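Researcher: Quick test of sequence recovery. Tokens follow.
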């Protein structure tokens, strides 16, 4: 069964709501195992066991969370060659801007030669019902790609 790894930093109620929608989206796809890992505890073994990854982070001062950056620093060299072509998606939540976080994630995932299988989801402010539906669709799209 394909395994989707969700690496997330979820420090706020808004991001927790989005994470719950992500879990619902993956549950809509049959025959996919969901593995949730907080960014500070996810590592190379998690990545090497995954068939795809969904990244979730707040935008902090125009950048991804330090926790997600730590994850990338931890897995970069051990996973660089072994995860080429890995399907991935990303969601970012910010107070008013997510562009810097999305750009940084795009640079790192590009260097790792992962394959983005869904448009990035950029959310600002409290998640609306449409935002949560978009999070479900993102998760389902990544899950289906495995």
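Model:
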């Amino acid at each position: 069964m394909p395994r989707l790894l969700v690496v997330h930093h979820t420090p706020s109620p808004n991001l927790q709501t989005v994470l719950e929608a992500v879990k619902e989206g993956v549950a809509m796809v049959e025959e996919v195992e969901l593995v949730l890992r907080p960014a500070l505890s996810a590592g190379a073994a998690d990545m090497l066991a995954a068939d795809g990854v969904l990244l979730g982070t707040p935008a902090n001062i125009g950048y991804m969370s330090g926790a997600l950056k730590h994850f990338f620093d931890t897995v970069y060299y051990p996973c660089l060659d072994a995860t080429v072509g890995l399907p991935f998606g990303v969601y970012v939540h910010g107070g008013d801007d997510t562009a810097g976080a999305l750009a940084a994630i795009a640079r790192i995932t590009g260097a790792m030669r992962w394959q983005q299988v869904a448009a990035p989801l950029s959310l600002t402010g409290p998640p609306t019902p449409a935002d949560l539906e978009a999070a479900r669709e993102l998760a389902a799209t990544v899950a289906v790609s495995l």
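Helices lie at 13-27, 44-48, 66-79, 99-111, 129-144.
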